[in-house]
Design goal:
The complex is a heterodimer of chains A (about 110) and B (about 110). Chain A has about 110 residues and is mostly beta strands. Helices cover about 0% and strands about 55% of the residues of chain A. In chain A, the strands form two sheets. In chain A, strands 2, 4, 5, 9, 10 and 11 form a six-stranded mixed sheet that branches. In chain A, strands 1-3-8-7-6 form a five-stranded antiparallel sheet, with no helix packed on it.
C-alpha cells in the first residue's frame, strides 16, 4: 500500500471555480505535510506546507489537515489556466524523509 | 543565488555504461536528496544525505551509489546502467530542522538507457 495516496485525475475545473485536491496518508507518525506543484517537464515547487490540524491560507490557496482522518487537502480558489499542473502531496515519515503521492493532474478550462 | 543545480540536463546511455549525475546547492543546506520520477510512480527517494559525510538508502537504492563530496555537492553514480534506470532524476536539498523543512528541487536530469 502506497503511504501517500492521491487520485491521479485529471481533475477538470472551469476558470474561476474552486479546485479541490485530496490526499490520504497511512503513516500515523507523519507530522509535516506539503503540497508541491509540478508543471510538465519541470521540477516540483512548494505551494504550501501544513503541520497542525485545521486550515492554512496563502493567497488563493488553502491547505487543510485532519490528522484523525489522515487526510490533507488543497483548495485553489478562482482557478486560473496557469494553475494547470500536477499537484504532489507529500508527508514526512520515518527519519524525516518525505514520501510523495503520485500526484493529481489539474486542468483549468477556459 | 542559483539554488539547486544539476548536470547534465539530458543524457543517453547504452546498457552497461556508467555515469555520474552532479548536484550542487548554494543555500547552505544540511540535507540533500536524490529522487527518481517515473510515470505513475511519483517521486521515489534513491539516497539521501543528512549531513556532510553521511549517506543513507532510500526506497529504491539498488543500482546506484552516492557521494556527499562536501556540504554543497551530492553526486549520484550509475555503475552499470540498465534500461530500468531510464527516468527523470531530481536532486533536492533542505535545511533539515527535523522534518519540517521545505525541500528545494533542481531542474532534473532526463536519462535514457538504451
Amino acid at each position: 500500500q502506497k503511504e501517500v495516496e492521491q487520485n491521479s485525475g485529471p481533475l477538470s475545473v472551469p476558470e474561476g471555480a474552486i479546485a479541490s485536491l485530496n490526499c490520504t496518508y497511512s503513516d500515523r507518525v507523519s507530522q509535516s505535510f506539503f503540497w508541491y506543484r509540478q508543471y510538465s517537464g519541470k521540477s516540483p515547487e512548494l505551494i504550501m506546507s501544513i503541520y497542525s490540524n485545521g486550515d492554512k491560507e496563502d493567497g488563493r490557496f488553502t491547505a487543510q489537515l485532519n490528522k484523525a482522518s489522515q487526510y490533507v487537502s488543497l483548495l485553489i480558489r478562482d482557478s486560473q489556466p496557469s494553475d494547470s499542473a500536477t499537484y504532489l502531496c507529500a508527508a514526512t515519515g520515518t527519519a524525516s524523509k518525505l514520501t510523495f503521492g503520485t500526484g493529481t493532474r489539474l486542468q483549468v478550462t477556459l | 543565488n542559483a539554488g539547486v543545480t544539476q548536470t547534465p540536463k539530458f543524457q543517453v546511455l547504452k546498457t552497461g555504461q556508467s555515469m555520474t549525475l552532479q548536484c550542487a546547492q548554494d543555500m547552505n543546506h544540511n540535507s540533500m536528496y536524490w529522487y527518481r520520477q517515473d510515470p505513475g510512480m511519483g517521486l521515489r527517494l534513491i539516497y539521501y544525505s543528512a549531513s556532510e559525510g553521511t549517506t543513507d538508502k532510500g526506497e529504491v537504492p539498488n543500482g546506484y551509489n552516492v557521494s556527499r563530496l562536501n556540504k554543497r555537492e551530492f553526486s549520484l553514480r550509475l555503475e552499470s546502467a540498465a534500461p530500468s534506470q531510464t527516468s527523470v532524476y531530481f536532486c533536492a536539498s533542505s535545511e533539515d530542522r527535523g522534518g519540517t523543512d521545505t525541500q528545494y528541487f533542481g531542474p532534473g536530469t532526463r536519462l535514457t538507457v538504451l
